[in-house]
Amino acid sequence: MNALSQGVYSVFWAAATWWMPLLLVLGFWRHFIKHYPVRYTPLFWGLVFPMGMYAVATRQLNLAMQFNFLDTVAQIITYAALLSWLITFYSLLHRTGHWLMQHNKRSPK
Hints:
It is built from 3 helices and no strands. It is an all-alpha fold.
């Protein structure tokens, strides 16, 4: 890998790195400052997907450039992305179950 491609990859990774704290700050602002209720919405998958992709990109950048500290970052983000995925999936199942129970109560037998 030449120096130009290393520089380009580093710039793109740094830009992606700025999105992670921004997502956390916006989530905190939305739910704790504006008191928007935390309920499942398909938009939550828009948080889960970038976290997973960032974890993969960080891992690949570490393999390509041999930055030892990136391996720890990749592991932390991988676990955070997995936890986010599990919470979002559980919320989807819970919301679907709630909807099905409401739907069954309304349907005539």
